[in-house]
Amino acid sequence: MFSFKHTLFVVFVVSFAEVLVGQALYMPLNIRKAYEKQTRSLDGRPGPKYWQNRAEYRMDVSADLPTRKLSGSATIRYFNQSPDTLTMIRLKLAHDLYKKNGQRAYDLNPDAITDGVQVPQVRLAGKPVDAKALHQHSTFLDVKLDNPLPPGQSLELGVDWSYIAPPAKGAPREGVYDSTTWFVPYWYPQVAVYDDLHGWADAPYNGLQEMYNDFSDYEVRITVPANIMVWATGVWQNPEEVLTPDFAGRFSMAQRMNAVVKIFSPQDYASGKKFFRTTGDTHTFVYKAGQVPDFAFAFSSYYLWDATATVVDATTGRRAFVSAAYNPKSEDYYQVCRAAADGLNLMSRWLPGYPYPYPCMTVFNGSGGMEFPMMCNNGSTHPNSPVSLTVHETAHTYFPFMMGINEQYYAWMDEGWAAFFDVVVTDSLAGKSQGRLRNYQDFAGTENDMPPMTPSRHLSNPAYRVASYNRAQAAYFNLYQYLGYERFHRCMVEYMNRWSGKHPQPFDFFHTWNEASGENLDWFWKPWFFDWGYPDLAVAEVGPNTVTIENTGTMPMTVAGEIAYQDGTKEPFRHPASVWKNGNRTFVFRPATDKKVEKVTLGDPQVSDTVKANNTWPR
Ligand SMILES: [Zn+2]
After folding, report:
1. Residue 466 included in any domain
2. How far is the CA of 535 from the centre of ligand 1 (A)?
């Protein structure tokens, strides 16, 4: 028995070491441990011992509009699927961001400063927990367990809480827009993630870095004054109970329609039509969502409501129900429902080319641009088109929601993708270049251009933004241009199939793409994601029949530009980033004709090139 085990152990250690010897990518020790424990596999798949925890939330919440007080009560069943015995449960209280001594990434509007989250009672299996077992710190509430929670067991936590909702001005991603219009995220005590890489998540919410949540089930009852409509994550369970038959009929019809249905129109408001059945002071909306990493809601007494349904799975014909809820004064939001539906349709069948995984999506006219599962809080972009922002925030459905990315560590694994999809999908919908290309070259090579593998929790702006959005978007464009649609899409789908509903970390991504592309892409990953440096090409020399490009930067990147001949004709050229894969510093190509060259210019809007002065010949 002993020798058998011993042999297995030796074989495992040798094979692991061999793979690591062949690794060009630096791997932090805590991530190596996951491979030793077999929670992850070096081929990029979840390991045979992969695990993650989950919870079931049943919550009642109500909003008192005059005082801006939100009060809730939750029953949370938490399942410990880890191999560890847990001696505490960590809850996130994101609204402690607003307390007087809160740690914040930037200044808040003084009106948004509150006393944070009040938690009058926590219950374990129905019994009140002694105050000594509770530790509220930064944006967490740790509940110490007298009886630790063994692997494979669950427990039931009850929590009552309240906070004052911040005014939207100067509050990040949320807030009270006016006396009856709120967007409400980060609102409930959510169990922090306990995972195989970091144990209990310990980066507090400081208003900058975004999501990292387990996949859980939600049943939420939201009580508001009887003249208010509530939109939320998940499927609305009681529309017939809340809406009058006329509006319940429109709501139901819109779920089958390709065209946009005006559920609440300006005419309905003008004619004083009765939307709601309720005769009392308040009414309650019930929403349910399964296997989602978060739950948000929003409400208003006067917003317009457009809705439609779009096919997101061609094989089954499944539709997603898409809504826009907006201020009647908005100058662009009448386009948002269409844009969201067309964007989800195109993303489902083209890029990323994976069926939208949820039953619905609501884009709510608040401010800024922020994603939650099945909900977005987006401001008006007038006079610019709302398409790019709508596509960006709805694209986040894939990353970080369907793929449970840890944005406290790896924000580039979701923001870079959303920034990439928002450009390719928006450009395709618009039929012209209209997506938001992030400006990477103006930051590239400065001290604020940090390798994206730097944990996001340690970055502040502008470094956080440059690493997560700008540099990652630029990298994904170069990768797409090299792999081409078919190979790129194959890698993407393989990655999503492997990690949908799970928590991939960077090496799961790198290794999966290495395997699915049929090529070790470490020559690409290392300079773009691990190393200091910047992308820069120069036209070094032009001979009678040759053009020599020098890689004066550090990154493999697309060689694209134009040759102008002395006879007045022009010819574009394009060579993928792989021309640099052997570490060569120069690349020589022959122009397509023998005509005399007058000028060579490097440049492509989707290829960041830091130093512009060396992009032309003659200099
Ligand atoms: Zn984003």
Report:
1. no
2. 23
At 291-315, the pLDDT tens digits run 999 999 999 999 999 999 999 999 9
Domain identity same for 227 and 197: no
> Alpha-carbon distance 326 to 263, whole Å?
12
Question: Residue 481 and residue 605: Cα distance in Å, rounded?
Answer: 13
Span 130-162, pLDDT tens digits = 999 999 999 999 999 999 999 999 999 999 999
Please enumerate in sequence order all residues whose Cβ is within 8 A of that of 427, keeping only pairs 6 or more positions apart, or say none. Answer: 433, 434, 435
Residue numbers of the domain that contains 7? 2-36
Task: Indicate the pairing of strand 282-292 with strand 216-225.
Answer: antiparallel
Distance from chain centroid for Cα 582 = 33
**Distance between the two ends of the chain, CA-based, in angstroms?**
74
What's the CA-to-centroid distance between 346 and ligand 1, angstroms? 18
CATH of the domain at 601: 2.60.40
Nearest to 590 by CA among 540, 543, 532, 538: 543
* Token couple for 618: 């003659």
Instruction: Give 373 Cα–ligand 1 centroid separation in angstroms.
Output: 13
Distance 202 CA to ligand 1 centre (A): 22
Is the preceding omega at residue 239 within 30 degrees of 0, hence cis? no
pLDDT, one tens digit per residue, over 27-84 is 999 999 999 999 999 999 999 999 999 999 999 999 999 999 999 999 999 999 999 9
Cα-to-centroid distance, 371 and ligand 1 (Å): 7
Ligand 1 centre from 24 Cα, in Å? 30
**Residue 22 in tokens:** 């062949």
Distance from Cα 37 to the centre of ligand 1, integer Å: 33
Same domain, 110 and 175: yes
Rg of the chain taking only CA atoms, in angstroms: 26
Ligand 1 centre to CA of 90 (Å) is 26
- Which residues lie across from 158 on neighbouring strands? 75, 123
Task: Establish if 154 belongs to a structural domain.
Answer: yes
| End position of a domain, from candidates 173, 208, 243 | 208
Distance from residue 419's CA to the centre of ligand 1 (Å): 7
Ligand 1 centroid to 416 CA: how many Å?
8
Distance 422 CA to ligand 1 centre (A): 9
469: phi then psi, degrees, rounded to nearest 5 = -100, -60
CA of 376 to the centre of ligand 1 (A): 11
Q: What does the pLDDT read at residue 14?
A: 41
Confidence of residue 23 (pLDDT cuts 50, 70, 90): low
- Residue after which a domain boundary falls, among 208, 226, 243: 208
Whether residue 470 lies inside any domain: the answer is no
pTM of the predicted model as reported, rounded to 2 decimal places: 0.95
Tokens 């640099």 locate to 580
Q: Are residues 256 and 135 in the same domain?
A: no
| Contact indicator for 313, 348 with CB cutoff of 8 Å | yes
* CA-to-CA dists, residue 539 to 585, 599, 609, 611, angstroms: 12, 10, 12, 12
Counting every residue written for the chain, the total comes to: 619
Packing angle, helices 415-430 and 472-499, rounded to 10: 100
Instruction: Give the helix ranges, DSSP H, for 163-294.
Output: 239-242, 245-254, 266-270
